[in-house]
Design a protein that fits this description.
The chain is an alpha/beta fold. The longest helix has 21 residues. The termini are far apart.
Length: 371
């Protein structure tokens, strides 16, 4: 009887060892972005989007039989933190990354991913140089670049708002300043209007009355702002306190409900570019409903772009049968994938084909498409 028990224990041990040896290793995907701080309202919806897509994949058996494991890191949208975040994800075994969220943080992290041969897809980093410089062949994004966004802003400001004197303001960051520089160039090239002020502000400041006074003295009949909602909400508020009612036109860093909450009644009438309205797309509806069921609220900025990033990335891994970046890149560039923005694929630089911007305005406390 004793020998039978010993045999049974040995058999169980051998079977357990075999099961461990043959267990499928998970595919590790990093998710990096602002999950804390002033810009968490950009990063947290993107994180939730990745989690929802990966849950669906794992519920169906994973990618080619392998489960997907998300490695989550917070960079607070700060370049100095993002580099460390990237190093942590690489050392933890991330084979691809969804992120980062802010352009400056993305730029700081990309050399680390490039050297480690890790493919990166951002839902929101829009600085053109990230794809156009040729430095980061491992980088893709599911949002159009700032030159396209700035062109949309300028065209709208000139053709619809009929502005002739435009103040261009920015937050000195990679994203905000880069977009403002494109806007300035497009205005000057148009020959239809004059840039009467080009000025940077310091992020996080309490008082922007100096730049507001400069805008007033410039006799501008419109403002184009490049940057994020914390600064935009203060500048708009201080403009309205000075009874300056000229149009304020900004970007997808402002097209977020948090801006409306911070600016309050002063947000009314503000224009902002943002990813095209895709609310009628069935994939959009599916994932927004899943988000609302899980969180009890509407998803925030870049959620749809992050769903798209997660879908195209996991499809590339599945079709390539590997996380080797060149094999994945071949799939990304050759195969269309159904996303909240319709079927998309990528050009040779990593830009999405089929994604653009719309113009929104705050009307009755919410962003509404106007063009």
């Amino acid at each position: 009887m004793k020998s039978i028990r010993i045999y049974a224990l040995l058999t169980a041990f051998v079977l357990a060892a075999c099961a461990t040896a043959t267990a499928v290793e998970p595919i590790k995907i990093g998710v990096a972005g602002a999950h804390s701080g002033d810009l968490a309202s950009y990063g947290l919806p993107s994180l939730k989007a990745a989690q929802l897509v990966v849950k669906d994949i794992n519920d169906k058996g994973g990618i080619n039989g392998a489960p997907v494991e998300l490695l989550v890191e917070d960079d607070a949208c700060k370049p100095e933190i993002a580099a460390n975040t990237a190093a942590k994800l690489v050392s933890s075994g991330a084979k691809a990354v969804i992120g980062h969220i802010c352009s400056g943080a993305t730029k700081a992290a990309l050399p680390i991913y490039r050297d480690a041969k890790v493919l990166v897809i951002s839902p929101s980093a829009t600085t053109p140089a990230l794809t156009q410089s040729g430095e980061y062949p491992n980088f893709y994004r599911t949002i159009a670049a700032d030159d396209a966004q700035a062109k949309a802003e300028v065209d709208f400001t000139l053709a619809t708002l009929k502005a002739k004197k435009i103040a261009v303001i920015h937050d000195k960051g990679d994203y905000g300043k880069g977009l403002a520089e494109f806007a300035k160039t497009f205005i000057e090239q148009s020959g239809q209007a004059e840039v009467v002020l080009f000025e940077g502000v310091t992020p996080g400041a309490v008082d922007y009355s100096a730049v507001v006074q400069k805008i007033k003295r410039s006799a501008a009949d419109a403002v184009i702002f490049g940057g994020y909602h914390p600064e935009a909400s203060k500048i708009v508020g201080q403009m309205r306190q000075k009874r300056m009612t000229i149009p304020f036109v900004s970007d997808d860093g402002v097209k977020i409900d948090t801006f409306i909450q911070l600016a309050g009644k002063d947000a009314e009438g503000v224009y902002a570019t943002g990813p095209a309205d895709v609310s009628h797309n069935p994939i959009t509806k599916e994932y927004r409903e899943k988000f609302k069921k899980a969180e009890g609220a509407e998803p925030g900025a870049f959620f749809d772009n992050a769903v798209a990033a997660a879908l195209v990335l996991t499809n590339a891994i599945a079709k390539a049968g590997t996380t080797e970046p060149n094999a994945m890149a071949k799939v990304l560039r050759s195969e269309e994938v159904a996303t909240p923005f319709g079927n998309i694929k990528f050009d040779a630089k990593g830009e999405p084909i089929g994604i653009g911007f719309s113009i929104y305005q705050v009307q009755n406390g919410q962003f509404t498409v106007v063009q």
